[in-house]
Specification:
24% strand, 34% helix, GTP Cyclohydrolase I, domain 2, GTP Cyclohydrolase I, Chain A, domain 1, single chain
């Protein structure tokens, strides 16, 4: 379902009035429409099938290179994402790192960031976002194991309350064989060894 821009703009005008501002003054005159445009982008994943980017798969045994079957995990690091916390409607952003153990099917690596983008483009909490990414990959690819690590900075932490500007949040979601402690530790060690990939992209 597409974002109702006209309704969002009308509600933003009410919000500006509620905080004591004048939505008709020059600096705010276009703000409702700008917010509506931004929200249509931020929440473009609402109602969208996150598994759709994984629909086109390649058989590892009957595909173009059956003599190069993957024997270990496929790992994609440093996927940038941004989302909006559903508790305060403030942004959070960071990087996702995804590993999966292929079953019979693999997918083009470009599909994995699309899954993250669809699921992040909704009102979210980081913990659920990682679990949803893991579930989508595990179910769509019949993967033997999935690991999703998210690291993000949250404006509800950095910009309000105690204002912990240097803090970041890390969450881990694991499925199948990668939920086993030893296997999970091996992949996490690989990610930590490439520490620059954990940069959340906020300039720090």
């Amino acid at each position: 379902m597409a974002v109702d821009r006209e309704r969002v703009a009308a509600l933003v005008r009410e919000l500006l009035e509620a905080i004591g501002e004048d939505p008709a003054r020059p600096g705010l005159r276009m703000t409702p429409e700008r917010v509506a445009d931004a929200y249509s982008e931020f929440f473009s994943g609402v109602g969208v099938d996150a598994a759709a980017p994984l629909a086109h798969t390649i058989s590892v045994s009957r595909g173009p290179a059956p003599d190069t079957l993957p024997s270990g995990a496929v790992v994609l690091r440093g996927i940038r994402f941004r989302s909006v916390c559903e508790h305060h409607l403030l942004p959070f952003r960071g990087r996702a790192h995804i590993a999966y153990l292929p079953g019979e099917q693999v997918v083009g690596l470009g599909a994995l960031p699309k899954v993250v983008d669809v699921l992040a483009s909704r009102p979210q909490v980081q913990e659920r976002l990682g679990e949803q990414v893991a579930d989508t990959i595990a179910s769509s690819l019949d993967a033997r194991g999935v690991l999703v690590v998210l690291e993000a900075t949250h404006e509800c932490v950095t910009m309000r309350g105690d204002q912990q500007s240097d803090s970041s949040t890390v969450t881990i979601a694991a499925r199948g064989e990668l939920a086993e402690p030893a296997a999970r530790a091996e992949i996490i060690a690989l990610l930590v060894a490439a520490r620059p990939a954990f940069d959340t992209g906020d300039g720090r």
